[in-house]
Amino acid sequence: VESGHFDRYSGKKVEVAQAKELRLKNATERCTIEVKSCTPHEGSRVDGTCNNYKYPTRGSARGPYLRLLKPDYANDPKQQFVDHRNSCSVRVTDPLHVARQPVAQSLRNRHIRMNRHSKPLPSARKVRTELHTTGRVEDKVTFNVAAVHMMEFIHRDISVMDGPLDYLKRRQYCCTPIGEKDPRCIPIHVPHHDPYLKVTDIHCLNFSRAETFQDAGCTPEIILPE
Questions:
Q1: Contact of 98 with 208, CB cutoff 8 Å
Q2: Residue 214, SS3?
Q3: Burial (CB count <10 Å: 0-12, 13-18, 19+), residue 154
Q4: Phi first, then psi: what are they for 120, rounded to 5°?
Q5: Alpha-carbon gap, residue 19 to 71, rounded angstroms
Q6: Cβ(121)–Cβ(114) under 8 Å?
Q7: pLDDT tens digit string along 123-140?
Q8: CB contact at 8 A, 173 and 179
């Protein structure tokens, strides 16, 4: 495989016209992966490139996350979203300005999907405390030790997405009224009976959506992120 720049999303080699468009948008680095020539008998590299000679960047670092199974949410597009942000509100001492975002992105990121029965999904905090407890076991019948290992696998896999840096440094206001106006904010509601935080004044955990290829301008908005 000859060296060159490959599209991060599709894995295809970047053609001249696309390369020119990316340069004009100053998006070459964030939307492509540069690969040096892959030799015929070379194994997969540390970054995951060259394990597919037709598409040498597929499965590599900085590539897209693809679903193994189809999403299982509400079928009705009018009922598959719910807004959880109104339940999260704390005082802010140093508000940050909310960055302007495209209208299409704002509409797409405004809500959380609902489950197959068109009901709100459980709080991510509730899922975490029930599946991955500290010092005790909440449910000794439904879950066994395999559930913990599966959760650790998922955590290690998706924690490298373009997300933690955003809510840890750039968007520290998602639990405030300012965050309600930012479509990238998706704060986590803390249940009143939380086993660890119920004795504190913490009712909301700051969190924002991971950046998608659509957000980065690498993929058309018409293609919905998975």
A1: no
A2: coil
A3: exposed
A4: -60, 145
A5: 33
A6: yes
A7: 889 888 877 776 666 666
A8: yes
Q: Copy the structure tokens of residue 206.
A: 């700051």
User: What pLDDT score does 138 carry?
Assistant: 61
Q: Regarding beta strands 112-113 and 81-82, do their DSSP bridges make them parallel or antiparallel, or are they unpaired?
A: antiparallel
- Distances in Å between the Cα of 16 and the Cα atoms of 23, 40, 59 are 11, 26, 24
Find tokens 């803390």 and name the residue: 190
Q: Which residue has the tokens 């990238």?
A: 184
pLDDT of residue 16: 92
| H or E segment to which residue 34 belongs | strand 32-35
Residue 35 φ then ψ, to 5°: -125, 130
Tokens of 175: 């639990």
Angle at 100 between CA 97 and CA 101, to 5 degrees: 140
pTM here? 0.64
Token duo for residue 91: 């005082």
pLDDT higher at 80 or 130:
130
Closest CA to 93 of 205, 172, 202, 188: 172
- How large is the average pLDDT for residues 70-98? 49
